[in-house]
Write a structure and sequence with these properties.
about 400 residues, mainly alpha, 3-stranded antiparallel beta sheet, 3-stranded parallel beta sheet, 14 helices, about 10% strand, rod-shaped
């Protein structure tokens, strides 16, 4: 027979052994011990012990350090004996503050306090892993779990992010929500960065949607109430949605400085930011509309509607640039695809409005270009400053 030292020793009915000290000294160095016994004359006879060394992956220390720097708490769950777990945890930078899972099976203790305050749990059974994950979730912790064996499957299934490592069994892979395609922990860093990038792009789209919808609807309604005529027609709105949607879709390819700390879905700041930018755009658009209307004596309804389209388009396009980041817009490089889509859209609109193409009434080029620069100034200077400083 071969197996855990204490188990084989008990089967051989050995109460005290001079090998106990050897096993403990090996464990403190990170060695696992396998005991061997044979059956002789109807009795289990203890033969000896073998030291095994299962070193952590070469990149473990660096990857764990990087994961911690991203605001993720790292805890080690292992079935190894407590001394071995402490040694390995120290080697990879998790910390030697490891508790034994036997504490969790005591009904008189606070399991969450043990789990949360220690950097790892040793001597765990498969059901302990599931219990630990569920306990963390009950205390509002978003929990990820890595594993490779059949016994890890329940915990992988329970965790918000179950991660099956490259060499995991099929059962573990089926239970997990993420499967790493190569060995090591580097892919977990990529997983975190991609997740936070997606989160940032979705929040950008939400802010854009709120501000654009508020601005478009209120601008059209307010101008109708004041002028008793629509500033844009149905065709203008269709063209506006068509052109702006190209830019909105290109946001998904934009460069993103993803957060170095965990983010949550807090909709209140998103709504506040979207409404703030929407109101600013309405005020700026109304000022520019009536200023240009009076200065250039725009009376023709067709020209007014072309001008209204220009206001809605340029305000919306430049607004997309400043909602890309919480800081100043120029501190984050714009993605190449997004930049070229915006430039193409702007050139196309300038040509259509100036030449009077595709159903638009021709506008003087000075009005089109000045509208472009006016909303560029408002967005990049005024709105961007307000966005950064008004919380």
């Amino acid at each position: 027979m071969k197996g855990a030292y204490n188990t084989i020793k008990n089967l051989c009915k050995i109460e005290n052994s001079n090998l106990d000290q050897t096993v403990n000294s090996w464990a403190e160095k990170g060695f696992k011990t396998i005991a061997v016994a044979i059956e002789k004359d109807g009795r289990n006879q203890f033969v000896g012990i073998v030291a095994l060394f299962d070193p952590p992956l070469a990149d473990s220390t660096q990857m764990i350090s990087e994961i911690k720097s991203l605001g993720v708490k790292v805890k080690m769950l292992t079935g190894d004996a407590l001394p071995i777990a402490k040694e390995i945890a120290e080697q990879v930078g998790i910390g030697g503050d490891i508790a034994s899972a036997t504490l969790l099976r005591n009904n008189n203790v606070d399991n969450h306090s043990i789990i949360f305050t220690h950097s790892g749990i040793a001597e765990v059974l498969p059901e302990d892993k599931f219990t630990i994950v569920k306990n963390l979730q009950q205390h509002n912790e978003i929990t990820g779990m890595t594993g490779d064996g059949v016994n890890d499957a329940p915990a992988l299934k329970q965790a918000e992010v179950g991660i099956a490592v490259h060499s995991a069994t099929d059962v573990a892979k089926q239970a997990a929500s993420v499967i790493l395609l190569k060995s090591g922990l580097e892919s977990i860093i990529n997983l975190i960065s991609v997740g936070r990038t997606i989160h940032h792009r979705i929040t950008n789209w939400v802010i854009s949607k709120i501000s654009k919808t508020l601005f478009t609807v209120l601008f059209v309604c307010v101008t109708y109430l004041i002028m008793n005529q629509f500033i844009v027609n149905a065709f203008d709105m269709v063209m506006l949605l068509f052109l702006i949607d190209f830019v909105s879709l290109a946001l998904s390819t934009d460069n993103v400085n993803w957060s170095k700390k965990p983010e949550t879905w807090n909709t209140k700041p998103l709504i506040k930011k979207g409404f703030l930018l929407g109101i600013l755009l309405i005020i700026e658009a109304l000022i520019w509309l009536f200023t240009v209307k009076e200065y250039f004596k725009l009376i023709d309804i067709n020209q007014l509607q072309s001008f209204g389209f220009a206001i809605l388009f340029f305000a919306s396009v430049f607004n997309l640039i400043i909602i890309r980041t919480d800081g100043q817009f120029y501190k984050q490089t714009i993605g190449g695809i997004l930049l070229w889509v915006m430039i193409t859209d702007i050139l196309l609109v300038v040509i259509m409005l100036t030449a009077g193409l595709i159903g638009f009434a021709s506008l003087p080029v000075i009005i089109t270009i000045s509208t472009l620069f006016y909303f560029a100034f408002c967005s990049f200077i005024i709105n961007d400053w307000i966005k950064v400083n008004v919380k």
